[in-house]
Design a protein that fits this description.
This protein is about 30% helix and about 25% strand. The protein is built from eleven helices and 16 strands. The longest helix has 21 residues. The termini are far apart. Keywords: ATP-binding, Ligase, Manganese, Metal-binding, Nucleotide-binding, Purine biosynthesis. InterPro entries: ATP-grasp, ATP_grasp_subdomain_1, PreATP-grasp_dom_sf, PRibGlycinamid_synth_ATP-grasp, PRibGlycinamide_synth, PRibGlycinamide_synth_CS, PRibGlycinamide_synth_N.
Amino acid sequence: MRILVIGMGGREHAIVWKIVQSPLVEQVYCVPGNPGISDIGECACVSLEDGFSHIADFAENHQVNLTIVGPETPLANGLVNVFQTRGLRVFGPTQQASVIEASKDFAKNLMVENSIPTADYRTFVDADAAISYVKALNQPVFVKADGLAAGKGAIPGRTVEEAITAINRILVHGDFGTSGKKVIIEELMIGEEASFTVLTDGDYCLPLATAQDHKMSHDGDQGENTGGMGAYSPAPVITKSIEKEVMETIVYPTIRSMKAEGREFKGVLYVGLMITQTGPKVVEFNARFGDPETQVLLPRLISDLVPLLNACVDGNLNLRTVEWKPETAVCTIMASG
């Protein structure tokens, strides 16, 4: 097989690293890739503009058998739809399904309508109304930009003053651009966070190993929210009984409700969880492999990744199983600033 990976980060490096080990694979391309990836695969500079026509041309011209989309933005902008229209095999959800990550308001509505456990919330487009709400609530909250923000759009409001500052950043000052046209104000859940990842073909869901990432920029869970400063796998907080509960009360209800809405979800569903005293609740959904969680999941994966991804595309994931190394994996992010 000839495989194309879209993306340029550590997540895509981990995906390429795992894929090149498959006996099914003869060539791996990565667009745009990075210097580390170029050591194990072929990187190419191909535009993702112009409705993804150039990258689709690249896949056709290089006889790519499967394209794997790493980042959320191409998914939200419809890359999978373009590839499917041109008859190209691609792993990842369509634009219609990717909205589960691209709009937090959509995701929260979906959860409420389908009794999927999550934090209480309100959505606002007017800053004054949002500020009045947090003043009346007078308790710690999370203030979240509705759209994609590279993992930085969720701002803790530990005090009313912090929450007001976050509201102004998003709705008044436009720190997150069009992603901040709406703001979600969510109760601050108490518990331990964990990352729960499943592969799905739209019907069957196969859970992967658990992980926990650490998002705050400074030690002791202090500082700004980031895309992730590090991760480890497995996450001991997710026991077998909690995994069963997550699959039954969160994962399958989500996949079924998306299909019922005409938004069949195929690919990776990442569930950011808070393990509370009353059980697991959803913090967020992502429509792709987590970063940096992928960097600790794939080194533990014994099974060949490629047949698993093919099964998601072909609709026969129920025929696959997955095997993991018992050792723990840890990833630390090096970042400036």
